[in-house]
């Protein structure tokens, strides 16, 4: 990551005039495939990236929380015993949300002086919020002398989003931020939380992430709308033949069988989820056997389904993926994350990655007038914390 611990230590000294005793970090993530499947109990295949949220801190004897978000240039003072949302400093909601959930579970949480820095690009589909939640959790685990199991930690982060912030998001982002492993992607069954680490070991290819660098509009409300549309699709399927409460429980044949009795929009939403689950299983197999062409083809098919059936791409995302696919060395390109803006992920031949990145940014600028960004990241480790002294 590009955060220098010495700079962070100095910033801490400047803010609190003391030396931190605990450092905690958690990474952002990029999803290789399996989009909008997690809240349907389906499959996902993300990897943690080499961009982190880092927290330096000292636990306090009282319940005061002094916080400095160095990257945002903001400070706030709250109380740990009454965790509440803040309209003025919404970034503190992730800290308060984690504390509220820990308290519900009966874990000890004290006040703390915290400095938060990070280099996960914010608001562009690389899960800066999950990284913050998982870093905060790792800090309080270390401070309180307890450690949660990975899936339980991820579930806690999901409850922060669902219950504290009112977003109906799934488990993927927190799970990979906590459980990711160096050199590996993580295949997760979002129903059972069983997971397999899948080596990212292509000799000749790597993942290039491209950022549209354009603000995402109304993501939260459109995201929640997709969740409701999936629930409505399940209702129609259940009405014909009850096989379960989630799209995970139904096949394409089941869906075709009720097509005539379904809202065509709900049909398309369900078709995306059902086919995306199948693509994610195939992509895991392709990664395990080194099938670059196959993985690239699946990524592109995923994107087309997200654009046409799920309707979560944006004009800028579509420009990026179209240019990417026209460039030499590109095996496949798709939007990644919730969509409605944000980033794409591209599988690219190693020896073409440099020219691919340059031409992609140049083409994007020419067509949209916008300056995008490119990140190349190997799969990183999940969250952790340690004592500094
Ligand atoms: C966001 C959510 C995840 C997942 C993705 C889409 O990142 O936080 O739970 O639903 O969108 O795959």
Give the C-alpha Rg: 21 Å
Estimate the helix proportion, in percent.
40-55%
What is the CATH T-level topology of the largest domain?
Answer: Ribosomal Protein S5, domain 2
Domains (count): 2
**How is the main sheet built?**
8 strands, mixed
CATH class of the largest domain: Alpha Beta
Supply the number of helical segments: 11
Mean pLDDT, all residues: 96
Structural commentary:
The protein is an alpha+beta fold. It folds into 2 domains: 5-199 and 380-387, 2-Layer Sandwich (Ribosomal Protein S5, domain 2), CATH 3.30.230; 205-376, GHMP kinase, C-terminal domain (Alpha-Beta Plaits, 2-Layer Sandwich). It has helices spanning 5-16, 92-104, 128-144, 150-164, 172-179, 219-240, 252-258, 264-289, 292-308, 315-326, 353-368; strands at residues 22-33, 43-59, 64-69, 74-79, 112-118, 184-189, 195-199, 205-211, 330-336, 343-349, 373-376, 384-387. Strands 1, 2, 3, 4, 5, 6, 7 and 12 form an 8-stranded mixed β-sheet that branches. A 4-stranded antiparallel β-sheet has the order 9-10-8-11. Strand 6 (184-189) and strand 7 (195-199) form a beta hairpin. Helix 2 crosses helix 3 and helix 3 crosses helix 4 (150-164). The longest helix is centred in the last third of the chain and has 26 residues, at 264-289. The radius of gyration is 21 Å and the shape is globular. The model has no long low-confidence stretch (mean pLDDT 96). Bound molecules: alpha-D-galactopyranose.
